[in-house]
Structures
1.
Amino acid sequence: MNPFENFRIALRAISANKLRSGLTILGIVIGVAAVVALMAVGQGATSGITASVEGMGTNLITVSSGGRSFQRMAGGSATSLLYSDYEAILATVGNEAAVTPYYAGMASVKNGDRTASATLTGVLPNYTRVNAYSLASGRLLTDQDNLQKSRVVVLGATSAEDLFAGLNPLGREIQINGKNFSVVGVLEAKGSSGLTYQDDMVLIPLQTAYEVVFGAQAKSRGKNTVSGIALSAADADQVDLIMANVEFTLRREHSLTLTEDLPFSVSSQSQMLASLTNISGTLTTLLGAIAGISLLVGGIGIMNITLVSVRERTREIGLRKAVGAPKGVILFQFLTETLTLSILGGVLGVLIGWGIAWGVSSAGLITTSVSSEVVILSLGMATVVGLIFGIYPAYQAASLRPIEALKFE
Amino acid sequence: MIETENISKTYRLGDTKVRALRKVNLRVEDGEMLAIVGPSGSGKSTLLAILGCLDVPTKGVYRIDGQEVMRMNERQLAAIRRKKIGFVFQQFNLLPRTSALENVMLPLYYSGVSHRARQAKAMEALERVGLAERAKSHPNQLSGGEQQRVAIARALVNEPAILLADEPTGNLDTHKGAEIVAIFQKLNREEGQTVIYVTHDPFIARHTRRIVSIQDGRIVRDEPVEHPLAAGTPRSDDILGESLSTTVEEDEEAGS
């Protein structure tokens, strides 16, 4: 009895019982396809989020008002982040990092009837560089614009589309709170970070924002405030040191002791990346769990089919023993049969799962990635499930005396 | 030649012990043709299963051509079933969705015969039972009689020393039953094939040359048949021997 001969018997048994074989394969196919497709979506989403967060600027540190305490909401002493804080931070860490403040506020941004949904942001010229934006056309804001409080504006890709619908915006005028501004530049599209749309941008010089648009709204006790300060460290290793220096400077500026809560948040991009990766990692685990359940359901399907066919198969095994088949040869036949079905179903499942992942990608929903680990894992699980449920009943039947197996009801 | 010495078979049915066979002694020479008869539950099928190595006795000695079956391991038993024994079942037990030819080839898979030789031998066996032209048919396309002939071909394909049949005509009408008996007689007369079959039907039993009667697990009568019936003889009461008709009267209602 050579293995090739046994393989032939197994193939014959599989093709002689097409319905049973098909149903067994179906369970494996569904399980494996679900695992491959769901894991591809999960991992694709994770790497997409990671990539776009990294695209927000390398070594980025963000200081924002708001902070960790709820004092402001609770009506306690309101502490605003001031323009002078920016100057103090620049003086402290200006050699190790590029520092840029911004003031963001609500304003009506229109081009005739067209409205942009973006927030209006007053910035210094280095804002675009710190946040890793690049210019698509025209020019960026300059120190000159800032000093002269020029009425000029740079638009994000989406905002330009919203306001001009494909027309070239350069040199044209838009209305911000009813005042005319001239468009001098348009930024390159950057995509979504998964949380914010980074291309909804309307940038004007910071001094223009203070003096022309927001006025008293941007002042706290007569001083200019900022919404946030962004820092880009020259060296990734110095991010933690810079953050410590920034916190120290803020405490000094606002006369806070080390034990008091800092009413500002100082966070690094790597912290944000870590928390986002954490979230999408949880998502992938969840999807994996769902996929695992479908593999389990597939396994139960295989088990059901095996149990349903066990009566016929027990008699078949009894008959094979009666005509002189040794137990080992029968078990080897069932092993070959089950392995063939499992691998066939597994490969079909991988192909279908891959197809679904490819379909999701090409429909533009999410960029999926099929990893070889998932393929190997799901194929392995399908094979193990198939083996356990296929071999165990066969082993039991083959252990019976032929007469018992033949009489099995 | 097969020989049993005081073989007993006891099995449990729930809490009760069933003594299916009690100290049975039987000796069958090569080339014999005999029937084992008895009422249902008498132990005749159990005896046949033991003779066919499909079951093992609880006690006693069973020898096939001098080899003690009780001392054999799994693999040796499988070899005995493969080489020495051909078994025909009442229920035919053909593999469904598998052609007649492939059903007959089944025992040869385990005998290390090449594919071509398997087909040739299986065709030859089908010719011996007169079914060569139905080789490609599946069991569900064959009549009961034809299915049983395929099963006989399967039992013959390894050229066994002994052909055993458990109620081979039990699921067939009189006419088809006569066909099966005719095949057994031909195999025995022309090829010297040893044939043992179990039947509850005294008329079918009278086609052999020896009748062994079993009751309550014991052999109660073992006698030769002086004038075995030819296959196709019409069934009538007066051709049954007086002694036989009294023994088997009671199991007219027995199905198997």
2.
Amino acid sequence: MKLKVTSFLSGIVFALGLGISGMTRPIKIIGFLDFFGHWDPSLAFVMIGAFSVYFVAYRMSRRMPAPLFIENFSIPSRSDLDLRLIGGAAIFGAGWGLGGFCPGPALVSIASGALPVLIFVVAMALGMYLHAWTAKLGQARSAAPSTLNIAADS
Amino acid sequence: MLLFEGRIAGISGMLYGVLRPTRGDTAWKAWFIGGLVAGGLLLRIVMPGAFSFGVVRSPAVLASAGVMVGFGARLANGCTSGHAVCGVSRLSRRSLVATATFIACGALVVGIASYIAKVAQ
């Protein structure tokens, strides 16, 4: 129960943060990515703010034996770089620049009821299913015991 | 999220968790996403300007962008929230590389798109 409440409240706070900082407005995203044109650096400050808060929270969490409402932490620990990470990030970045939305702001913007947002969100869900499907195909093809780490972190 | 639940607030991962539910590990993700939408409704009341998008691409472009964002985020195990915010703040090597890659590719695409728009004029 507690987890549901903290998740729900975290979602609300996150949404407000995205809205206030301008992350829900594609014009700001595209402006931030427009290094070759009229670069709008304001989102860089948002990111620096988010990093600072999270950096402190992460240091605090390292000193806690366990989170407040659950038995243990689950934090990604991989440090290897692979083609999947870089290729995925490249495809993601291209989509981000093209549409001006990333997953969080797109979900928040569902509340606007605007059709373009709904199109984007449905397509994003399809993209995720497409990935699951291709990953399964890839696994079936390489019959060797798979060491693929598909749903590791995020 | 980190301090209370000991987890990373990675949005693409949570969304996928809801799209393909596994027993016992879905409710908190669904509640977070519900919170995002509820926060969006709140914004609509207190700050309608948050949804003045400014640029709205055509449905075909948005649909392709959506597929790329969904596919890419799953392949890279994370999106802006998981890699750029949570990962970079933890100084994770994978997240630093992923974030630099998203921004570089995004900038490239925006550069190409504005070049095409300029030529088309």
